Amino acid sequence: MPITKKNNSKASPSPKIEELQRKIRDASYVYGAIESIASVVSRRIVEGHAVSGKGADFLIH
């Protein structure tokens, strides 16, 4: 396999990537996302619907 030189020119990110970059710099957005994830995980644990596999085994032990 031949070694090729990478192109170091930076293309501007897509509008979706720019939106996500803005969101992760917003502390209130990140806090809300963490709260949402915690709520879903907690509900699944309480309801006994935790999923085995895919790195989620800790939810059912």
Can you walk through the features of this model?
The chain contains 2 helices and no strands. By secondary structure, it is mainly alpha-helical. The longest helix has 21 residues, at 27-47. The radius of gyration is 19 Å and the shape is elongated. The protein starts with 14 loop residues before the first helix and ends in a 14-residue tail after the last helix. The model has no long low-confidence stretch (mean pLDDT 80).
Give a brief outline of the structure:
With 61 residues, this protein is mainly alpha-helical.
State the main characteristics.
61 residues; mainly alpha; 2 helices; 0% strand
Helix and strand arrangement:
Elements lengths: L14 H10 L2 H21 L14
Which percent range fits the helix content? 40-55%
Weakly predicted, low-confidence segments:
none
| Main sheet record | none
Number of helices: 2
Gap from first CA to last CA = 47 Å
Radius of gyration: 19 Å
In terms of DSSP E residues, the strand content is: under 5%
β-strand number: 0
- Global morphology: elongated
Order of helix and strand elements from N to C terminus: HH
Determine the mean pLDDT. 80
Structural class estimated from helices and strands: mainly alpha
